[in-house]
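Researcher: Next sequence.
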Amino acid sequence: MHACNESGRELVVGTYTDESTIVYSGDTLTNELEITRFLELIETSTLSEAQVTGLPDYVITVNNRSESTMEAMVNVWVLENEQMLFTRGMEGTEVFQIDSMYTEDINNILNMNTF
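Model: Next structure:
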């Protein structure tokens, strides 16, 4: 984390190494417009009938550094057909599907080196 800038929000991406350990990338996204866009995308995604199993491929969190809070946590599963499913929150059970027109946006976030 950037110690010199402790205000505002940041989006970070991580992966599970086991059921209780998440390792976050060193990259952070601090662009407020991009974070807001991501949160809107997650909030407007449609509920899916699909089931997810195993550990998610990615964990995306949005932290509010100035308030020392986590605003959002999303667990993402990437299926073989490039479809993306996710749950919201730490214990989320409802599965949502990312609309295919937003897949590239999410891939850019998951591969943070593009920012």
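Model: Strands lie at 9-18, 21-29, 46-47, 58-64, 69-78, 84-88, 96-97. The helical segments are 32-44, 103-110.
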